[in-house]
Structures are given as C-alpha cells and as structure tokens.
Specification:
Length: 202
C-alpha cells in the first residue's frame, strides 16, 4: 500500500548512504561516480568513474546505469534502469544507499485545521495513520531484505583499478591493449630463451 503522501507533487527526495548516513538531495540529471565532477562522488574501487545517473520522469525518479563495471542494483536486482520508490535500496557497485522520500510536515495540517470545516481533515488524518499502520508489516519485511543484501555486499569482491575499461577514452584503451600485447610478447620470448638455454646445456 502506498504511503498517504504518495500522490503529492515535488516532495524532497534524497539518497542516504547506508554505511555513513550521509544524505544527498537529488536533482534531475545527477551523476553518480568517482570523478570529481559527479554530483554524488563516491570514492570506492567498486564504483565506476561515471557509474549511474538519476532522472526525473514526470512525477517519478529513475536510476539509469551508465555502463558501469559492477552494475547498479535496486533491492538486490541488477538492471539497466529502475523506477525508484521510497525505501528502495540502491547499490552502486558495493556501496548501498536508501532512496528517501520526505513526507509532508505537520505544519501543513495545522494550517488546514484553521478552516471552519476541520472535521473532514481530522478524518483524513485518521485514515493516514491507519494506512501507515497497515504498511508496517511490509516495511518490516523490506528492512529484513535490506539487512540480507548488506551482508551479501560486505562479502562481495570489489573490482580492481582497471575494472571499468569501457569508460576510458579510445586512446587509453589502445594504450592498455598495446601494453598487454607487450607483456605477452616478453613472456613468450622469455620462455623461448629459457628453453634454448636449457637445450644447449643438455
């Protein structure tokens, strides 16, 4: 069941990092990654230079993977893009965030209660409380799922420094390829040299 504020427009939304509690308010087009120019910069080897992007589509928020090496997950499921809902666990590489939707404050309700016909507002408030109570078991189950995912993430292997070669420029990819060929050639020549030296001494 959706929260009582599910249909309200333009609510503040944030990503809250699970290991530190640090929060980042989202803006359309926010890029997540290791580069300094990323709106949400994550210094972690499992995160690509430009890992993912947050998009606003109508009233919904989406996370779109930008070809990262270790992928983007929502509640443990990997994919190219996901629609986000309050409470979702979003994971970039091995770094997990909670998608947080800030509910309306009580000040709004206080302003409405000034009007003469306040009885319907009291009824709406009771309905909202009842909706939250009904949603409590689902929230508890979601918390259990997140705890399980955090344990799996702690045990996952993080990528090494060149994990996201696809995001390097063409020149850098060419240089890495040439270096790899040179290393293989040196190994092959070394093996042949050793083989010849052993044969000559035999």
């Amino acid at each position: 069941m959706d929260a009582p504020w599910a249909g309200i427009r333009c609510l503040p939304v944030k990503l809250r990092r699970r290991d530190s509690g640090e929060e980042t308010e989202l803006t359309p087009g926010l890029v997540v990654g290791r580069l300094a120019e990323c709106g949400l910069k994550i210094q972690d080897g499992s995160v690509s230079r430009r890992h993912a992007k947050l998009e606003r589509r109508g009233e919904q928020w989406w996370v779109v993977d930008l070809g990262s090496s270790n992928g983007t997950l929502r509640n443990g499921e990997r994919g190219q893009e996901f629609e986000l809902r309050g409470g979702d666990l979003v994971t970039f590489g091995a770094v997990a965030f909670e998608f947080v939707v800030t509910p309306p404050t009580s000040d709004f309700g206080d302003e409405i209660s000034i009007e003469d016909d306040s009885a319907p507002e009291v009824h709406a408030s009771e309905s909202a409380v009842e909706s939250v109570r009904e949603a409590a078991p689902a929230i508890s189950h979601a918390d259990q799922e997140r705890a399980r995912l955090r344990q799996e993430l702690k045990q996952s292997k993080r990528s090494s420094g060149l994990g996201d070669l696809s995001q390097l420029s063409f020149g850098m990819q060419l240089l890495v390829g040439l270096l790899a060929i040179a290393v293989v050639a040196v190994v092959v020549l070394g093996v042949r040299y050793l083989s010849g030296a052993i044969t000559s001494t035999a």
